[in-house]
Amino acid sequence: MSNPVQENRQRASERVVRDLHPAVYLALVGLTLWLGLAIWGFGYDGQTDYLLAIVSGFLFIAVAIPSTLALMVHHQSSHERKSSGEASFQEWMTRDFDTWQDRVKGRNAAVEVLLPMAAIAIGMTAFAIVLHFTAAGS
Asked: Where are the domains of the chain?
């Protein structure tokens, strides 16, 4: 005889995810590339190019190392994911995401992960635009 409480717990645990969807990681890489392009908006003279190349190198390393590790894990666990069937991004957003403090909806988790990098990329773009217009005027 099956226990309905146990079945409800099992169904609820199936709707909880502990890993970010790959689309969130791709969005992070995209935002980092946007930031890399935005910082080159400060290269209006030849004096800053050296420093901007160093910052670009740091951004490249900050993306390359975690991406390489993620690809290694992805290739190792690709057989497990194929058998379990990876959820689409739409399905992932509706599930609960388990953090060390609480459970939040997947879409909220994605926003909380992407928001800091998006704010930096948008802010740096705004600073570069302002610098472009103020440097052109002087």
From this structure: 19-137
